[in-house]
Amino acid sequence: MASASFQNTKFKLNTGDHIPAVGFGTWQDANAQESAVLHALQSGYRHIDTARIYGTEPAVGKAIKDSGIPRKEIFITTKLWNNSHHPDDVEPTLDASLKDLEVDYLDLYLMHWPSAFARGDALIPKDSKGKIQTADIDYVDTWKAMEKLLKTGKVRAIGISNFSKAELERLLKETTVVPAAHQIELHPYLQQHSFTDFHRQKGIHITQYSPFGNSNEIYGAQEIGLLIKDPVLTEVGKKYGKSGAQVALAWGIAHGHSVLPKSKTPERIRQNLEGDFKLSAEDLATLDAVDKKARFNDPSESFGYNFYTDLDGKK
């Protein structure tokens, strides 16, 4: 039974398709994803986000099948991983994802990072010293291979993730298809207004990953408190009978972005969907003032590539 206590907001992509504002993220906890995704779909989610590297595509596929919800009603995103950036590897890797997801097309296919790893079956190829093996493959060439996928009917839209402004500008200059979406770390502690304005000007939708900021344990101990317990967010939430986490989601949606909360807990899965509610202009302005330019996800050192060089929160 789908919950009725959320707005079911959708945003129009530059392709004409619509993306539901609240998506269900499936990063981490691979073994728990089948039941979590099934519960999410039964709760009313119609946007599921996965990736080759997550190892959750088979679980997502089975949950979608078991839900009985028609394929066309679900917006499915997955991502090309770094070991498959060679143009010859792009379509075969997509085919592998489609097979695992048990679907014949994707709504959105993203390049997960602008950086390339060594070609091969190893998702995280390492040398004898345990260092990741990178490859000299230009993301522009990878993107051109992704553009060709649009003619196959296997993807309805293509996009990017984790690009800097300079990298995105170069992509726009040297290729044909404007990305339909850019998935980036974005939350009230990392607001990046000038970067999001640039996307709006170019007609590129933003999807926010880690919309709860540093609440994910993988980001380790932080010098600042948890975003979802920030007193500004919790005070705003009291006006609407919402939690700080729900306010963080509503903030993103108010700015025209889709958001990707994730949880294994049925109650929290439902609560996250109820983060789709309308904030007043006054409350939105209050939330816009809590920006700390705090970026929590930057794998530059381990990936052997300098990410986010021109963006807020780069240490």
Name the descriptors.
eight-stranded parallel beta sheet, two-stranded antiparallel sheet, alpha/beta, single chain, 315 residues, globular
Would you mind describing this structure in some detail?
With 315 residues, the chain is of the alpha/beta class. It has helices at residues 33-43, 57-67, 87-101, 139-149, 165-174, 193-202, 231-240, 244-254, 266-273, 281-288, 300-303; strands at 10-12, 18-20, 24-25, 47-49, 75-80, 108-111, 158-161, 181-185, 205-209, 258-259. It has an 8-stranded parallel β-sheet with strand order 3-4-5-6-7-8-9-10, with helices on one face. A two-stranded antiparallel sheet has the order 1-2. The longest helix has 15 residues, at 87-101. The protein is globular and about 55 Å long. The model has no long low-confidence stretch (mean pLDDT 95).
How many β-strand runs? 10
Distance between the termini: 45 Å
H/E topology pattern: EEEHEHEHEHEHEHEHHEHHH
Largest sheet: 8 strands, parallel
Based on secondary structure, the structural category is alpha/beta
Count of discrete alpha- or pi-helical segments spanning 4 or more residues: 11
Strand content: 5-15%
Radius of gyration: 19 Å
Tell me the overall shape. Answer: globular
Helix content: 25-40%
